[in-house]
Amino acid sequence: MKIPTLPLLRVAVALSFLSTLHVHAEERFPVVSLTAGMHVIQAEVAASDAQRQQGLMFREKLGPNSGMVFLFGEPAQVCMWMKNTLLPLSVAFIDARGKIMNIEEMEAQTLTSHCAKGPATYALEMNKGWFAQKNIKPGTTIAGLPKTK
Prior knowledge:
The protein has 149 residues and is of the alpha+beta class.
């Protein structure tokens, strides 16, 4: 008996494609405008556990002044990594008053931990090198951060 392989192959490819779309579908995050000195940032907000876990995973591009702000609720010792994140990013760890404590450079698709140097209430991810290009350093205040619980 001959098994019809071509139709089965087409079905398998279609199912594989559809499951990839589901896994890699980007959740829509709310967006806020932040400022760092004269620089305006359009930041997607990751406030829930699920949103923070997804972060910028699977994104292929990020606008020049776009990023993602992570809200942790209470100041905590937090670390970030780049699992399934296709873009190299810079992350600023920010305290409850909005001051940047430290900025770390992160390579795409790595599991290296990049940690805050103190209790962080927020983390702001931008394209790699964005903070350095804008001369934004630890001690700079980020204005417009959403309130945490």
